[in-house]
Protein 1
Amino acid sequence: MGTTAEGNGVAEANGNSGQPPAPPRKWYHINKQFMPIKLIYFCCHAAGISILPLLTLHMTSIGLTFADVAQVYLFMPVASFLGPPVIGFLADRTGRIRDLYIGCLVMHCVFHHALLFVPPSPHTTPEALAASANGTALSCTDWPPPSCANLTRSLHCHLECPPDSEGELLACPAGDSCLSVGAAAELVLQLGADGCQLPALLTDNVTELELAHAELSCPDGCRLECAPGDELPISDRTTYWTYFFLRLAATFFLAPAFTLLDATCLAVVKEFRSPGQNFGRQRVGGIIASVIMPPLVGAIIDAVSTPGATDYSPAFYAMEICMVLTIVTIFVFHLHVSLPEKAHIGQLFKVLRRPEALVFILVVAILGSMWGFLESFLFVFLKKLKAPTYMLGLTMTVAGLASIPANWWSDAICSRIGHINILIISFFGYLARYVGYSYIRNPWLAFPFELLEVATTHLMWNSAATYAGQLAPPGLLATLTGFAGALHYSFGRGIGSFLGGYLMALFGPVIAMRSMGVASGVCGVLYAVAFYGCLRGHMTRRELRQRQKALARQQSEKFGEGPHEMAAMLEEVGMAAK
């Protein structure tokens, strides 16, 4: 009996009524229901992160100028906006959502891989620009000049003769008499398909002649001092248009691939509703991919490249391998792909009637332009500082690792600092990044500024998405958040890349960086003044009016006033709230 009592006591102490005690809980837990979506996030983001950050470098390597790059990025948001609704419409009509998703993955790989076969522009590749005859001295004894087919800008030349010489250019146009042109004349060797072998243009105050080189005599003992013209180098149009259409087609299929992936993730989270398994934690696979893949791909590129010529093909092959793994994962785990919720575009104007919402949308777009310029041209700038390709990938690794705790505790950080304050801090974070980059001459010094990406990108978007939830009326959360995301990641990036590309082409990377930094700082100051000086008071007064109107309705319903008394009461409330 004593033994039985002891046994019962032990059983009661364990709380299992005689059942064996539960095993101790492990510090980790693998939820098999969410493992497929995490794997797909890793593979899909690994494919994108392998190639997308390097595409600007690839564009310049085949001879596209900064102006060309800017124009391509300007039109890419059009493809990003068109892709998701078109694929969504086809999915609604056919019901074959998973097949269309896999088709998007395959087609974006096909069009991106086709970029490897775009013919390079012969006169504007980095090798041609380095060997260009721009800014040279042409000897008169060797006139007409030798072949200069590697010329990338027209040359503007002036005759330079010894002080005791009265040397003049002698122009003898065909079928006309010869004439002497003074030293003040300018000789322009025009740029064309044959370099500077086209007819030269000779101008002074009274004369303008187009001359073949053999029709111009240069006196002995003198030389022509030449400098490149102000016009931008012009790439081969076949190269530009081929790349332009292939890149837009690739973007058209890439955008819905990521949209459908996010929608599927949301559907899985809602279906299983497991504690701790929220939308953000499923995206950790994408963050891990951004930590691992960039330096790995960069190291392979450095290993296969030759001095003076970088081979970017390993990035394209890595993209394709990861995309094959994505498709295999979808079939193995029988993942059901979901469509995103439809946005109520017609009701978006209800949100934009509020001044704070309109300013918020504008701020998100401006921050997107700041992000877009760095995404498109930071690697180009670091490459000019002789950064190895694997180091470019390490910058993304550092930013990704730093973002993990920031994303994990983003709700607490946003609540502590405030959503508006984080948006304002993001502007000044971009100011510090841009100005800091412009002063470094060692590419490894970029890492401290990369850490600021935690504030300018990750905390910024978490704060923006949460603030959108506060601004959006009931039923319009998805609409406002989706619209803000499109403005930031598509429209804003396109505008930033376009403006930044032309600034790079006209003034160089240092001036472009500092200009964008100053613009970001000014926007941050203006937003702080606008919100704390005007918008916050406007929002407070509107909320006070809404509370007072709600209270007036409650009193009216309680005491049974008629509609006329109710209208008078609401009018008095509105006057009191002003």
Protein 2
Amino acid sequence: RFDATVTPAAAGLVGLLYGWRDEANYGAAVWDPSGTVSLVEVADGEKTVLGSATDTLLIGAPEVLSLDLLEPGQLQVRRGDRLVLRAAREGELPAGRLGLTTTGAGAGFEGLRLRQWVTQFSELEVDNDVFANDPFMLNWASTLADWYPAGGPENNPAWAVPPRERADEATGGPEQFWHKGDFLGAYRLSLPVGRGPLAVLLNAPFEAWDPLLARAAEDGPVTGVGPGAGEGYAVTLNDGAAEGAPAWVGLYRDGLEVGRAELPADSEQFEVHHDGTVTWVAAAGADLIVHHDPAPPAGTRVALWLARPGALWDVRAARTNVLDEVFEAAPADWLEQGDWTVTNRFTCMPTWSHMTGLARGSLAALWSKYGFTGDTTIEYYAGSRMQSDLAYYYPRVGEFNLTFAAPPGDLAEGISLMPAAWDPGWTGRHTLLAQGERTLAETFRPLAPSTRENTGSRQVPVPFVASGRDVHGAWYYLKARRLGERVEGYFDNVKVLEATAPATGGDRLAFWTQDNEIVISRVRVTFTERVVPRRLLSMDRILPPAPEASTLQAKLAGQPSLAYDWVGSRQGWQPRTARRGLTVEPQTRDGRSFLLVTNRLPGDTFEVVAPLDYKPATATPGFRLRALPETGVGLDPFW
């Protein structure tokens, strides 16, 4: 992949070259003044246009232009992160040089880069069979449960997907499903062939779709499907009305056909892709339909209609711009405040381990080191950890809190989703969206099970998952969406909160709980912009040891003594534990140097340890201690 930052100086051709041998033999991606981007090849002076699309470069505006040659048999052109042109090319690419081209008044070129692969953040397909095949973990560990029946789980309380081995035999049940997440980047859908008609709705602005169904008899099975009424793109698969007739796919926008093609014989699946301004359908390694749209639908929702709901086992969705974390590797992308560790959920089953927040009597927060700005959807699956001293009794099911759009380490400044939050009566009925002490939206509807008020049964029905574990071993699906000027909160796929998004001053997110122990099995963050941060905390410079001591030394009554002035360094003072609830930083104000100790977690300590490596006969430490006005608590030094 060849990238360049290009700034057109005036009207004229601007482009990227490949396979250049001479002026009569080369390939190029070129933008012309009419607002068209084209892929052309010239062989022995004869020009062939491989493909073109509408795309305009503004004079004087720098753009990152990319020529993507990574996919065999395909040429792709990008402007920024958006795919703007895709064209097939048979055979090997012509040998030759990469280069730049411009005509007219010229253009500026900088930031040239050549890559053999491009790293993308894409969602995972969980490959741990113990989890993916467990009837109580289907709702987070299986691709099956990425989808939920139209109308929400409350309108389909008794439905369970048929077993894989009998998927084709099953009839009845819901036929329309919506994906749980948002589609904010490029994506691919893999769909089965030979399982009856099916259809997908892409880039829908909201959950509303009425596909057109054809039946041979009024009460007979569906024999064909059309796009029907629904905003966005639709793709349909029809197996053919007559026996032996080829299956065909159609692509539509807002109900109007933009492409149609037959599927290759013996196809077992086909794929639907969307990236930037290009949508295409492929099967057997070849593109069947390619549609370029300079203004594609901007919706983020995707729906699926199946004649046989059991075919859901063979549907796969792969989205980019997704940070997908299942905590199966070292959690290097996360920063803990308080006590977080990957450990077992059950006392009796030490092999089932997940990210665990241990916050009995305190607060524990787990921060993402990445920042996220713009439209963002955060999905996570949480549950209560079995605590051996409480046996099977779970006094507080809930407090699976999320804060996002926050400065690093500051929960109060971000937007918080607090499901079944703490309240004085431990009722678990208070769920809210808040920013600091300001409530944005709240509900007192029971959402999490309560063992204090009833038998601890689920308040919201959950499809796919086996019954019998509503608390002990249960997983709850939580979601927060920030799209445009609104923010929403969901519990088990039911929208329970909505508010106008407040102004925020940060881009970090954290999961947290207080006076509780929770487990998190999976986190998916779908984003438009990801921020790679600098170091979150200042650190002392690492210097070679100086011949003199790093602190002031004196002799007093024949005994050694130490003094610390903290000028530009912590001089060895450290928090007692490695937990990140406490920060220790040297500061200077009004010409005085001091050590600033900060702890944003309630219920913890301000323990800072001096670097004393000997035990003097007498120890009489002296401190000048002052609490800042914003501290809000009393401090007592002890030694």
